[in-house]
Input
Amino acid sequence: MKLNRTARNPHSETIIALIDVVFFLLVFFMLIGRMDATAPFDVRPATAVTGRDMPAGGITLAVSAQGALALDGAELSRKALSPALSARLAEDPELRLRINAHRAAELRNVLPLVAEGEALGFRDVVLVVTPETDG
Output
């Protein structure tokens, strides 16, 4: 008895489709690889420093979670803040401004205060923070 083997018909494997997929992935990753804008100059982000004591002296501006303000314990309105800070700075040009904001206070209520303090002439504006505990 004679068994006939089926003739092998080699399938021509095209790799064109695979090459298309590889080039598509290459272009895709090249496009999304760098989506943020780079500065035309060297930018080195600030390094966070913890464990240092808060500088002594100066006045303290407290910001509540709702955005209410108090200068050295006395509540005041947003309109009265600039004249009060200017008057205190006129007494002592080396005065330090410490901003103590509640952790739930929104940045839109805090950052303009830093800019206003610098615009008025405070050379040292300190944001008061509480370090995290390791427990």
User: Anything to note?
Assistant: The helical segments are 16-32, 78-91, 107-120.
